[in-house]
Specification:
The structure holds two protein chains of two kinds.
Chain A lengths: L1 H7 L1 H18 L2 H67 L5 E13 L5 E6 L12 E3 L4 E8 L4 E8 L3 E6 L5 E8 L2 E5 L12 E4 L10 E10 L6 E7 L8 E10 L6 E2 H6 L17 E2 L3
Antiparallel strand pairs in A: 1-2, 1-12, 2-5, 3-4, 3-12, 4-5, 6-7, 6-9, 7-8, 8-11, 9-10, 10-11, 13-14
Chain B lengths: L3 H16 L13 H13 L1 H17 L7 H15 L5 E2 L2 H23 L4 H33 L7 E2 H6 L1
Antiparallel strand pairs in B: 1-2
Helix pairs in contact in B: 1-2, 1-3, 2-3, 2-4, 2-6, 3-4, 4-5, 5-6
The chains are: A alpha+beta, B mainly alpha.
Chain lengths: 296, 170
Amino acid sequence: MFGSLLGRHRDRTLLVLCLVLSCVLLSLDHGTQNDVARTLGLSLYAPVQALARGAEEAVLLRRDNEQLRRLVATLNLERQRLLPMRDEVAALRRTAGFAAERFPYLKPCEIVGRTTDSFQGALQLGCGQRDSLSTGMPVAAYAGLVGRVRQVTETRSLLETLASAEMALSVTDQRSSVIGILRWARGNQFTLDRVDAVEDVLVGDPLVTSGLGDYPRGIPVGVVTRVGVSLDGLFKQIDVRTHVDFGGLRDVFVVTRLVDWQERTLYRTEDAQLLRTMPSEDAAPAQTSNQEVRIP
Amino acid sequence: MNVFGPILLCYLALALQATLVPYIGIAGIQPDLPLVAVTLIALGRGGTAGVVAGFLVGLAQDLTNPGFLGLNALAKCLLGYTAGTLRVRFDAGTAWTYGALVAVATVAHDVVYLTIYTRLVLSEMFLSLATRTLPTALYTAVAGAFVAVATGALSGRGSHRLGRSQLARR
């Protein structure tokens, strides 16, 4: 009977089969969907991804290394200049009774896959549970915030970028401290909602995460590109452009935990080798379980 | 039946969508090359090839973002079937008429997609249709016209004639 159907009404039979299969896939729970996607995706995309990564690394790695060495040297100098101020701020906060400021501990991850879906901004990371990643962790790039980890498997994770219809992020204007909700419009264009018409927001104002919600405070997000007033005159209509170009990302950093910057456990042994030119009285490796070293 | 051409076309469309297309977006609007490939295959080879190509291309897209696994597969196999079945009524004789068909196909695809994706929240659905689908349809139509010219040139037939013209020639 099936053979007869396939012979006489091949296109309709195939359509019904494909529709049923699609509906079955849609009705699966998220965990099973993830397993199916991982199993099929690894075999389908692995050769292409390996080829693309190999070619990209051959061309770009040398240039990246050169750029990063220059950047590290510059940041070292800047860090030395800022260290006394950091200690001063910490002392003032202690005196005032404020909680100590926390600093994000970053885990570098490579992007190994991109979604081709235009409504859901998502990237696949080459890190997973074995790299201490878990759901909800914020993800940043050199330029600023990228999004958060949505799903994690043993070796891979799915990163939901800010350019996703379901994303809503609390941000603050770094100049005037006005808080609003960032939502995606299209591409790298966003809107800042819930800002009263009387609030002080100007074109060019930098926006950072407010610390309300799951994201740590102070991560750069974007810049205000247009300010208007809504038709009812109650709220501002604000357009925002993010610092991060989500299409051109290759590496990101997952905030795996927040550490007290007074603890100075942000650097590991190999980092100390890189930073050995810095004047340091206790630059020897610290006696910590995860090979971290204290550098002032 | 030669299946190598459609497979290559689908694979190329998916690869370009993931690598090149993000760089040619205008104000965040990008052409949908997998959709162009499915429409091209459906108009050229009929409903059966359209359904299979649509399902496989859509599934390949879903694998990169399993949040709604099966959604692209469903929308694109419906599109492949519709384009393949209705090809006897349309004459995509020139690149620009093919482009216009691609624009209509993009809107139809997104209507199906957004109906499920927004869970029928009409305000969200119409907002996305107005702000994302229509510009995307325009950009995809232009890209589709170029693809039609390119595939026509590659197949050595000059301008690629699809739909009723192609059937009449047979």
